[in-house]
Sequence to fold (110 residues):
Amino acid sequence: MNAEQLYEQLKKVQEPKGYFFSNDKKQVLELLEGLIANKDRYGYMACPCRLASGDRENDKDIVCPCVYRTPDVAEFGSCYCNLYVSKEWNEGKIEKQYVPERRPPEKIMF
Fold:
């Protein structure tokens, strides 16, 4: 599967749930390529914006869509890596701001 195919597949599943890809399709495709690379590397699609450990149990919180996506999009209109955003974020109706890392430090230090 390539990034364009993954884009179409995920778009069909996520948009009805209220999660949209960023309008910056070039960036989105790069992130999707990172997901594909992580699937090849680890056997699961770990968030390309975070450092995965290779231990699925340790990384289950960052398997895309990560557990932080819902609170990030609710609070900031975008997830940490700007892959998934709200409709309002894409339409410029809310300010685009930095999304802080929610992952606990002990999950990052492996």
Notes: The beta strands are 20-21, 84-85.
